[in-house]
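Students often ask why inverse folding is considered easier than folding. One informal answer: many sequences map to the same fold, so there is more than one right answer. In these notes we will look at a single instance of the problem. The structure comes first.
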């Protein structure tokens, strides 16, 4: 049972997964990958936020996950990385929120889908949250990069923008592109893709 605490996180979210460009998980509930599974990296940079009276602005995290089928079907494996610049109180607060232990959506629902989870791991995170050309890197562990789609006729960038008028599960308004790289090599999490689904959004998750 979760213990409800007052928290909120407004963040840059750099989302990269192994789905094709119209991510089945986001728009239809099921992955569009060839094997029917979901593998993803989320880079999260906190713009403003708190857990109880702990200020979380300026902290950075990377969330890595893999599910053998759709996310809601469970049996997921994941890991949480937090930048070393965070204080111990901030690390504890972020880990509590991200693990779903503090309640609130979407994290409480996502946390329930895991059978294995590793972390929090304190590392140096290199993150650049641009609308169309975001990057996330942890040296020796993972790397993700975004770029716009290219119109094959004109050769110009197609800067795609998607909104959920009634609100989405993770985000409401996102810039859509494709991955230049999407790779993880960490314990039980290993995958390597490119030219797959990429989205950059501002997420606003309150549990007040």
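Output (designed amino acids):
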């Amino acid at each position: 049972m979760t213990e409800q605490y007052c928290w909120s996180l407004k963040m840059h979210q750099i989302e990269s997964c192994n789905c094709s460009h119209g991510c089945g998980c986001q728009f239809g509930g099921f992955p569009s990958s060839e094997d029917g599974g979901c593998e993803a990296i989320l880079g999260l940079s906190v713009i403003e936020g708190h857990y109880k009276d702990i200020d979380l602005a300026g902290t950075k995290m990377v969330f890595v996950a893999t599910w053998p089928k759709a996310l809601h079907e469970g049996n997921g494996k994941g890991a949480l990385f937090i930048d070393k610049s965070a204080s111990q109180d901030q690390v504890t607060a972020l880990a509590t929120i991200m693990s779903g232990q503090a309640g609130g959506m979407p994290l409480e629902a996502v946390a329930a889908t895991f059978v294995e989870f590793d972390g929090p791991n304190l590392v140096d995170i290199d993150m650049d949250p641009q609308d169309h050309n975001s990057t996330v890197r942890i040296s020796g562990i993972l790397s993700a990069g975004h770029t716009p789609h290219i119109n094959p006729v004109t050769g110009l960038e197609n800067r795609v923008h998607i909104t959920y008028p009634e609100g989405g599960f993770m985000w409401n308004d996102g810039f859509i592109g494709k991955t230049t790289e999407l790779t993880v090599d960490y314990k039980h999490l290993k995958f390597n893709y490119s030219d797959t689904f990429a989205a950059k959004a501002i997420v606003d998750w309150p549990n007040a």
